[in-house]
Amino acid sequence: MPRPSPFTIKLTREERQILKQRSRRYTLPYRDVVRAKIVLLAAEGLDNKEIGARLDLPREIASKWRKRFYRRRLTGLEEAPRRGRPAAFSPSHRL
User: Fold this and answer.
1) Which residues contact residue 63 at a Cβ distance below 8 angstroms, ignoring those fewer than 6 apart?
2) FRET label pair with 68: which of 1, 33, 48, 49, CA 20 to 30 Å apart?
């Protein structure tokens, strides 16, 4: 039996509304829609394994986004800066 997550999600009315809107928008990038769905399911009390099964994701992905939302709320669902050297040229200047 999996242990329960220590990151219990309780949403405000505004957060729930924003996440529901994101989860329904087909014009958003897929990753943003999935992250919103993960947090909504976590707020319903589902564990990470069940969230992963419902969304066809590994349990670790559900755990990662639950934890980031718990720590930083909505801003935690945004893309974080990536490591590595920045591009020397913009994509429009490459041939």
Assistant:
1) 5, 48
2) 1
In the structure encoding, which two tokens stand for residue 84, read together? 């590595």
Report the chain's mean pLDDT, rounded to a whole number. Answer: 87
Residues above pLDDT 70, as percent of the chain = 91
Separation of alpha carbons 81 and 79, rounded Å: 7
CB 41 within 8 A of CB 51: yes
- The pTM (predicted TM-score) of the whole model is 0.81
Q: CA torsion, points 60, 52, 6, 75, in degrees to nearest 10?
A: 80
Q: Which of 59, 71, 40 is nearest to 2 (CA)?
A: 59
Which residue type, as a one-letter code, is found at position 16?
Answer: R
